[in-house]
Design goal:
236 residues, alpha+beta, Ribosomal Protein S5, domain 2, five-stranded mixed sheet, four-stranded antiparallel sheet, 6 helices, globular, tRNA processing, transferase
């Protein structure tokens, strides 16, 4: 039934390669099927002005797509200005990752997660969050190894996965052919222990019932468990 031939509850093949850039404190290249995202974490000793002297750390994110990440070339946003979609996604990544951080333990410093989409085939925001946490984990490991942070500020892994209703059936981890035709589209951001951080769901051509929403949540929990396992293996 699915264009890829996957089962309804089957994730795309996932791989997370770490330490892929030389200078960033944490980095990984996450591949979820044909969606590939480079995630880097950069540590700054200063926090934004609104956080100064608060004793709290801050985690933020920036997101972008390379010109040929999609089927046709896009102009770089540095040239045309950020779109509303880009701003919405990078805010989602930032607040999702902050939900898994003890900002007191992090101390008054900022970690910026940069997510650059090399190739897009659906689910780029979910891949960015999942890979972004791995980059964040690696950067925090360096802080702890150097003695700059005493206790681990990362409370729980954070991962995200898309689910939707395609051809009348609930499916896990939509690729582009499914995403573009889905009657219902949803993104689920969760902690490693299964707590919900954010749920984005919308009818894209068909309404959905509470039972269908529960089915999608069940699929998301299944996907979350597998993603967190991949995160922990990569960051070990």
């Amino acid at each position: 039934m699915r264009p890829s031939g996957r089962e309804l509850n089957e994730l795309r093949p996932i791989s997370i390669e770490t330490n892929v850039t030389r200078h960033a404190e944490g980095s990984c290249l996450i591949k979820m099927g044909d969606t590939h995202v480079l995630c880097t974490a950069s540590i700054d000793a200063k926090v934004p002005p609104f956080m100064k002297n608060s004793g709290l750390g801050w985690v933020t994110a920036e997101y972008g797509m390379l010109p040929r990440a999609t089927h046709t070339r896009m102009n770089r946003e540095a040239k045309r200005g950020q779109s509303g979609r880009t701003q919405e996604i990078q805010r989602l990544i930032g607040r999702s990752l902050r939900a898994g951080v003890d900002r007191v333990a992090l101390g008054e410093r900022q970690i910026t997660i940069d997510c650059d989409v090399i190739q897009a085939d659906g689910g780029t925001r979910c891949a960015s969050i999942t890979g972004g946490w791995v980059a964040l984990r690696l950067a925090v490991n360096k802080l702890m190894k150097a003695g700059d942070v005493i206790s681990d500020p990362l409370l729980d892994p954070v991962a995200a996965v898309s689910c939707g209703i395609y051809a009348g059936q609930p499916v896990l981890d939509l690729d582009y052919p499914e995403d573009s035709e889905a009657g219902v589209d949803g993104n689920f951001v969760m902690t490693g222990s299964g707590r919900l951080i954010e749920v984005q769901m919308s009818a894209e051509g068909a309404t959905f019932s509470r039972d269908q929403m529960s089915q999608l949540l069940d699929l998301a929990e299944l996907g979350r468990a597998k993603l967190v396992e991949a995160q922990k293996t990569a960051a070990a």
